[in-house]
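Memo subject: From amino acid sequence to discrete backbone structure tokens
Action wanted: Derive the backbone structure tokens from the amino acid sequence.
How to read it: Take the token row as a discrete description of the fold.
Attached in line: The record itself begins immediately under this heading.
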Amino acid sequence: MTTSNFLEDLAFHAIRSGRAFARLWHDAGIEDHRVTRPSWTITLNQLEAGRLLKGTDLDGVTAMGEALRRVLNTERAGYGDRAMQEDTRYDNLLWEPRLDELRRVAEAYKHFCDCHERYADRLTAEREAARAF
């Protein structure tokens, strides 16, 4: 993540983290768990194309996070709840490769959400500052 507060840097990191999340989501085959919604395909395609999301697309990302939490909880009771609230990068899941794969998707999801929120907050701050002057 960047320590820069320049809008361009924040947008760059939101784009890169979105692309990484979309690729990991596809690679994990989460669609096989019957949690796919048609709108998610559009959202994932936008992320892979390097587009920043707005409005209902962000609602879809939130729903994807909830689905990911449920899938993780299916793999190990309570793990999805924990993975969405805590840093799980250092969890030792060597003997549970599927859970580890889904954990990586969850970490990418959280990173994307953080990057996108920082970008959106900065964009809002710049708009509000321009309006105030």
About this structure: The chain has a mean pLDDT of 90.
